[in-house]
Fold these 3 entries.
Entry 1:
Amino acid sequence: MNIKDNLKIITEHWGKINPLKIRDYIDVGGYEAIRKFIEKMKPEEAIEEIKKSGLVGRGGAGFSTGEKWEAVKKNKGEKYFICNLDESEPGTYKDRAIVDNNPHLLLEGIIISALAIDAKKAYIYINGRYIKQREILEKAVLEAASNKFIGKGIINSHYDLEIEIFSGAGAYICGEETALINSIEGKRGEPKFRPPYPTETGLWGKPTLVNNAETVSNIPWIIINGGKKYSEIGSAVSPGTKLYVLGGAVRNSGVFEGPTGMTIGAVIDKLGGGLKKGKELWFSQIGGSSGRLVLENELDNSLTFNKKSEIPLGSGAVFVFDKHSDIYDFLLSIAGFFRRESCGKCVPCREGTFRLYEITERMKDGEISERDKEAIKDILWTLNNTTFCPFGKFAAVAFLDAVEKLKILDL
Amino acid sequence: MVYMQSTEKILLEFDPETKNLLPALKKVSAVFGYVSQGDAEKIADYFNLPLSRVYETASFYDEIKLKKEPALVIQVCSGTHCALNDSFRIISEIENALKIKAGDDFNPKVKLEIISCLGQCGEGPIVIVNGKIFTNVTASGIHEILEGWI
Ligand SMILES: Cc1cc2nc3c(=O)[nH]c(=O)nc-3n(C[C@H](O)[C@H](O)[C@H](O)COP(=O)(O)O)c2cc1C
Ligand code: SF4
């Protein structure tokens, strides 16, 4: 593993350029990747570089970006590109930070991604609550269009691209790509059965590439510097840098960029500046509300997107709990979230999240019965094994760890 | 200056394609506070869709209201950061003070909602009263905030 500690790919210009001025971005080398892509590369070559880079999706599932591009590219006819900026995982706001600090980097990535797969239309699906970020993006799209990076004949080439921003309407599940597509089509944002995958049958039934906003923001760097160089950053199984969102008892809360493959301890100490004065580590949650809980003796685990990894990196959120945190407040927070956000399509998830919430309320009030304790185990098993989409599993993750590692049922 | 907004005028901002159904519903709900049955019918006509299809979509999304909202809507964030800083105590303070229960829909004058993380974690607990955001709220401080509204 070759960690280049201080390399910044996404946050490089944060705070140094005016996000509302395309000129500022161009002056630091912005939009050069599009130029290189258009003037010096065939789409196939760009896809090859992305494959070589080893970049995997930052939306959680960790699928190879290059392979996904290739799957869509090989289909003929009308296609779509969708940038997933729904980001409704509690405690996660990295994609919002990208828009706030450097929206043109994201746009440049979107344009290259869309052109590489021959899409003529791209959507940005943005969280409905990100009102200010929508405005920033609208302005950025206009400026990019007047500089001929979007529209007909991009920088006087044969490439055309239209970009449309679509706001969500308050439903966490719409971050899941098939639910997201339903939502653009004016339907209920419920997940669809896969296969067929969106890469074959996506928006309006056409092949569609969905990529997370952070994934996309890596593209310009890879086009300029080459896939090989990217593959040497961070962990070999899922190379590159990652935006970590720190919160809780750490000294520095916020969004920080570091290589993949950092240990949990290093993320807390190096990026988070260690714990706040007077705080003592109890456990941490990795990857947002649906993330694993880890104890102090697990801080040596390194964080990657490897399918086999014990502690998945997920959204990159790392929340640190102090010894004096009220565990029931935490459990009620996540149980409430999953109860509210279950889309209701399948019974095990709709009922399971509801009952889990009720029992957690009783737990908080100190009124939990032996029957409740048995029921919790059943509910968690059902959520973990029988739901239609991964949301059910997500709802069980932290609770399972709370039972096993924090022994909440023995308290 | 007060603009008279009509549903017909709002709809004309959108091409009658299904990808504009959700944006149109959102806009009507935001302007009038909710989507009335009459408006739902107009929307169905405009997009050339069955009324049931319009309701199917509208009822799914939190941001689209199908009932007139009470005059006072209080929302409390219960994301991890807010929760660990006492949101649930703030919620019970409000429940006791106003004699309502979070999540209930019965009271025509006031509603208390528990909401998910807004991503303003550093400033929690967050309470929103009729759209106005209050940060770093405490269980004792909530009473003063409520006094301004009742
Ligand atoms: C319940 C659920 C919620 C999801 N939420 C998001 C989200 O908010 N943002 C996102 O980019 N991906 C989210 N995903 C993953 C998407 O389905 C999809 O895999 C991703 O956008 C693909 O982009 P990537 O390959 O760049 O990661 C979610 C998945 C599930 C099952
Ligand atoms: S698991 Fe939950 S979110 Fe997924 S389809 Fe079933 S009810 Fe909907």
Entry 2:
Amino acid sequence: MVQEQAQQKLSIQFEDIAQQNESYIVGMWTFLVTEIMFFGGLFATYLVYRVANQEVFWEAHRHLSIPLGFFNTCVLLTSSLTMALTVHYSQRGLRKQQLLWLLVTMALACTFLVVKGFEYHHKFVEGLIPGANFRFEPAEHMRVAQLFFSLYFAMTGLHALHVIIGVLVMTILAVLIAIKHPSVQDFIPIELTGLYWHFVDIVWIFLFPLLYLIPR
Amino acid sequence: MSVAVAKHGEVKHNYLNAGDTVLSWLLTTDHKRIAVLYLVSVTLFFAVGGLLALLIRLELLTPQGDLMTSENYNRVFTMHGVVMIFLFLIPAIPAVLGNFLVPLMVGARDLAFPRLNLASWYVYMAGGLIATWAMVNGGVDTGWTFYPPYSSSYSTSQVTLTIIGAFLIGFSSIFTGINFIVTIHKMRAPGLTWFRLPLFIWAHYATSVIIVLGTPVVAITLLLVAVERVFRLGIFDPALGGDPILFQHLFWFYSHPAVYIMILPAMGVISEVVACFSRKRVFGYHFVAFSSVAIAVIGFLVWGHHMFTTGQSVYAGMVFSLLSFLVAVPSAVKVFNWTATMYKGHIEFRAPMLYVMGFLGLFVIGGLTGLFLASLATDIHLQDTYFVVAHFHYIMVGGTIFGYLAGLHFWWPKMTGRMYPEGIAKLAALIIFAGFNLTFLPQFVLGYLGMPRRYHWYPEEWQMLHVMSSAGAALLGIGYILPVFYLLWSLRNGALAGPNPWGATGLEWKTDSPPITHNFEETPIVTEEPYAYENHHQQEEVASGTGASTAEA
Ligand code: HEM
Ligand SMILES: [Cu+2]
């Protein structure tokens, strides 16, 4: 049993397990570089408009809830810790602990999404969803405020999409681990998911101050 | 299907006869079969783009707009650009030749992620089909550059669908790029150090870096255009509070490097072919290798040369102009080195070599005219004229497509096990060269005289030049059709190639043609530098005399 757990499946194109594992990890890092550039385009757009409209962006950002944003920041940071624990236990082949911390990570991710959902709902009630029903006082700032909220929804929406994908992947992994599926006998799937998850957290670490903590 | 037959008549196993059901192709993870899938698809899209080009040239035969309305003309040139750039030029060399050759050249059994590789083809096809669907359902008329606010607020054509198509195609190249980077880093055969890698691999490595860094930016940018269009969010449209110049910055941040995505792989092909048919090692190997990297890096710093006249500050313009001159240096380094490689070589004028020589001449013209355009004062006169059109066609058609055809002929024996017919292949190369120059040389003159791009009517006095250009396009069309026929013909009737018909160096020539499914009977071990043509040459001479001292790899 223990022996079986240590055994990894070697794909035909690789010479040995070490090469296979390194390839997967380099591949994941490369993918994360594309993700950084993907968000980078959006961040650049945001920064250009913020520099040009500091005043109105400041006004608009007061409609965001700093407590909720701060709470979510803590949630995600904690989830990074629990994800690190998951990876740690999976490297040691301790299935129960691994599963436990994976589930905790998922719970935290879902908490984040629920809070985000409440925030979006508030914006909806306040008429801050860009489009025909957008309302903003004072009216002469409406256009730029709408730009702020367009970017707010685009950036946090894309981030939330990444969180959702993370939750889906973790769900699949959790099921596979629970049924002792051979494909998750080694630590690579969890390791890769961990890298992805830390990336998602880091994006939020930039989003929170940029959107919620605009100085006057 | 072509099947290599061993001497005593029994059929050898290879990747082509490893399975012949349709499913065995659609579900394959063999990089060589995926390359063939890509070969068929990019050829089809090339045909579509080519037909659209012929329509453009037909319309421009006469000064009046008599074949189609202005609106339809806009659609035709836009779709020509979209198909050629996103569906043909960007994937052509990496996804066909690169896919086939990268694992072979590094001595691996496959790419690092074979399933991701197959996924990239499916994503490419999905993007291609969506773009095609957009074309038949009204088309797009924004130009391949999708400039807002026209694209986001005014155009009534299928902008959103086309953008979704381009977005998907972008992700298919990202998949390919990730695969190449990991494979080149982690899967090189024993002894294959970085400086023993063929320059084709260096070129593909640099290309992959650009793909991975640049494509996501254009993906998010185009997505924002689509979002602005669908939800009326003001991101780029000034009427909604946005800034169209920002779009141009983001777009060209990718799309200038994208031109190097198109040309660098071709440069990789040139290095291989020029060394083989000059029987010499590539002059200044390290310079050629690092110039690829330099192009990848500097290429990211010059995007502003597309915006000299569109509202960028004069000082930014000066800096971008200077940097654009800088990026020409590594390109020139390559040209000098290839020329020096041929110097005193034993040059064989095979069809691939003819394409290489065509490439050298045309790329130099394309690159030098790029410098005209990168000079602030001249660009004000030449921006948005046929001069620009001629410039980029010299590089993309004269450079990339020549490189692609050189590579396709050079590795055709490896891919199929059969030789292409040399005589007619040389003839086609000459027709393409003549047709190409007849098409695009007059366009430099037209642009200099002031003919703007993207118009379908013009003053009478320019008709002669336009007629020349259209005649050239017809000739070019013939030149492109020929290879389709003789290459298909060669699948059954070509002479058997054997493992190494050119006497070339490189691991891909050390295995069967066509190779077996996992490329090598046993993992090769590399003991010498690349392009050791002279060693082998001496060896042959020495072997007949005193006996070889250096060991064969
Ligand atoms: C020697 C390096 C090069 C320089 C200095 C250069 C310079 C330029 C400049 C300044 C322009 C803008 C002209 C204008 O719009 O007024 C331009 C346009 C263009 N270049 Fe180059 N170029 C170089 C290489 C390439 C390469 C290698 C390719 C393609 C493989 C390429 C493809 C294009 C294309 C497609 C356009 C037109 C874009 C459009 O639709 O507006 N260039 N080039
Ligand atoms: Cu450019």
Entry 3:
Amino acid sequence: MSISTTVQRSKELKELVFDIIKHADAALSSARIGKLSVAGRKDLETPNFFSLSSRGAVPHLTPDVISAHTQFGGVYMALEDFIERAGNATPPIMNCPGPFPLHTFAALPPSLITLLAPRRTPAVTAAVGNSNNAISIFTSNGFQTLSNKAYINYAEKLHPDIAVALADIPHGSVPGTKRVTKMADRTQGWLTELLSGRKEGKPAIFAPILSIDFLDQSEYINELADEFADDIDGLAFYDSNLLPDIPETTALSRLPKLSLDEPSSPRHILRQISLGMDLFTIPFVGFATDAGIALDFQFPRPSQEEGIVSKGTGSAPLPLGIDMWSTSHSTSLTPLSIGCPCYACRSHHRAFIQHLLSAKEMLGWALIQIHNYTTMSTFFHSIRESIRNKTFESDCEEFARAYESELPEKSGQGPRVRGYNFKSEGPVEQKKNKAPWLPLGGDDQVAQSVVPSDELAGKLEEMGVTEQADQ
Amino acid sequence: MASATSTPTPIPMLKPMPSALTFELIARCSTTKARAANLTLPHGPVQLPLFMPVATQASLKGLTPHQLEATGCRLCLNNTYHLGLKPGQEVLKAVGGAHKLQGWKHNILTDSGGFQMVSLLKLANITEEGVRFLSPHDGTPMLLTPEHSIDLQNTIGSDIIMQLDDVVITTSPDAARMREAMHRSIRWLDRCITAHANPTTQNLFCIIQGGLDLEMRAECCKEMVARDTPGIAIGGLSGGEAKDDYCRVVNTCTGLLPEMKPRYVMGIGYPEDLVVSVALGADMFDCVWPTRTARFGNAITAHGLLNIRHARYANDFGPVEEGCGCMCCRKKEDGGLGITKAFVHHLASKETVGAHLLTIHNVWYQLALMTSMREAIIEDRFPAFIKKFFDDYHGADKTKYPDWAIKALKMTQIRFENTSIRTPKRYQNSNPARKTLPIAYCHDHMIEEA
Ligand SMILES: [Zn+2]
Ligand SMILES: [Zn+2]
């Protein structure tokens, strides 16, 4: 807990400061409580998470809703979401005025920390591999290459609070042995270039840890410990299994550690925290929201009330979420989670949210998103309490007994509007709802004097009236 | 069906109809027929003239009730047809009505559901009993009677409910059918009045029918006014008729309606239509267009419609509309979000947040337009307001003023200098999509999408 004077001195030059406040019982766990401070932003106690954005927006949530109804402390932004025009012109975001173009462009509340990375998480598998000086990215206009030079330029101009350095990661495919040897070398070269060109320590830089065996990147990681540790501001893990392999030097240990490892459940988050992870990006929040699943768990155990009221007794583990598509909620006046302090739970009930999903009203996903983010904020708050109380390891065991290990399967459909980023992956809904009924008439005039629009066509198609390809 | 055609409808001996509203006339324009009034409804007061955004299925296109409230909205519309399908009457009963369902503390107006059935379901068939149609769920034959409609709206608990009416498209050449529909609407009004279970907490509005035939409209006004409902709607319009005809019908009806009752013209929402209709003496309007067009990337502004998806906005770091007071357009220093056209452009058709932001702006624009009309009426400078409005809307190019508006305003004694009336055809050809869209496009809450 004592901070060395050298660290103290270097802090004055840095935009980002990370203080480690408390460690869990060291014999059992590497979990720790920290505080991430960025000038001009709200301090963030860790362990904590950044919400994911899509094209600069947190899906379903306008910035006023973020301010009023969420507690997350930062937003992850993918550069590939902003530079689809880079081939022909300067991407508009690069023309955005003000000292913090990324923030200003996305109209983010000033209290939020911005984290810029080259690619979305999860990222769409690239069609072509990376090269010695560039990676392949996926924009709304398709695949492009992003050179390290360009990335450095973007990171400097856009002025995020934190930038994750470019990493040679073959998203989605397993690298061959020849490739593996290059990955660490390239990443190290790119990091060197980034750090040497950086002015006044802005932005803060997180060095990537690759999703390959430690031995295949040991040289790079040792270099991080020996040469880069004072210049970088954090580590970004594409594979959290590398955590125990990181040399426990003072300089590396003091750095905040960010997970880009796509945890699939709260249990994975807990495991990573016990290995020493401080910060997370959590794709399953958005997946759950789009699937109409309201997250429903508390750490380390469900509240008394909830355990009794809605979960029954017995020792069967509880589901981690509630499928809000189920018509069993259609007249339920209870909130998504009993005792949840979120706007959706205070102002609305399951019957409304079930109705909104079933009617495909966008507000349904917005309300579930608010709830799911609040659930995560409460979860992390409880985790920090648990670490403070030195009960983290036993609490994790209790959580594992109380809840199922993975989120429930989705049953309903996602929101109508899907990002381009979903195209190349994942279970995308195949076809819009099959019409429950068909008109018997022959002519295709549906409503007089109405210009058919693509949106209207969607509605009509849904009602079985006509078939028209999406625009 | 034709047998009932010209049966004169006797005015029944009705007990005086209770009302759950108070209507207070605040000001009258000394030139036009425009009025400003306060309307107090069961869930609070609203100020007329008024635009009502359409929350078809108990939500306004991604906005939380909180956000809708922040636009200044205190009366929004829900569609009975849609709520009857989803969540359905049983759920509405169990939940305790539409206010409780959607967590909306303010007023709700519902339509009768009949119009949407006729529009959406081409197999709908109208008889004296009601509207016959096939269930969208399972295809079984169903019947919507005036009694069903009122019962459903009583369950919904909306502050203003609408009678079931027999709607024939105004451009229909079948005068006999039109007359039948007008008389049937009167008969159905009587059945609605009889069926209405909550007259002290819900206000039933009649709907004047009669197509474009002014005499038929006059007859309908006389009959329906005699029924003494708390408010009166002018129906059947915005179905593709020429705007000249539309204006004549509104002008005729408002001339025959009692001064001390609210007048609601259904399905109207283009800014120019709103301004002219207010000048013609109408008070209340609804339309899905502002929220629908937002989802196509269109921002409504005092200077016309902007399609933010256009490449010219990609690097425009100004607000959606300079000087707009909405949450999106206000600068961060002024407590707003500081949303730029560039950001909306960046999100358009890719993230729903972009549509939500434009929806907030567009609803704000519509409500602010009504508020500024009200202020102008109260200060008796409405004619000047109208001139400035058309000036702004058409970039001060008087040759672009729509003829129908010039003609309609002439009916109200307003003349624009240096404008001449051209043929409607020329007007249509010489103007881009915005102005040539038939009013009908506006009335498509009948085809409201999810
Ligand atoms: Zn909640
Ligand atoms: Zn605005």
